[in-house]
User: Fold this.
Amino acid sequence: METVLIVTLVLGTLAFVGWPLVRPAVSPRSQGKKELEALESEKEVVYAALKDLELDHRMGKIDAKDYGELKDRYRLKALTLLEQIDRTTQKRGLVDEQVMDAIDNHRGEARFCAQCGTPRGAGDHFCRICGAELAAIVTS
Ligand SMILES: [Zn+2]
Assistant:
């Protein structure tokens, strides 16, 4: 049991120390993702603290006044984090949409048939209505 604990600690420390060296370059998109992950893990910490507090209170390790104060503080922190997570998620959704639009524009991909104006389906190479060839997809 102790060995497992030590191995876990060592691996955790190594991962923590080594991660900045091996992680890929940060793009704005993964920045948002990282922000979200940081918020999520902070939320886990606050939830764990709340649980510990609850346990300490039930075991009589902490008096009612301190318990009430700490609980309020942790709850407020958890609420703030949840709000931040919400906002970050919405912001990411918006960014993703903008990125997709930018990619479409960059590709100059025809989204409609030049002959008859029929909307192009995903992966279509020929118009579904008139059969005209659609502009090739540029993937570079
Ligand atoms: Zn057509």
Observations:
- The CA atoms of residues 116 and 130 lie 7 Å apart.
- The pocket of zinc ion is lined by residues 113, 115-116, 118, 127, 129-130, 132 (CB under 6 Å).
- The chain has three helices and no strands.
- The chain has a mean pLDDT of 80.
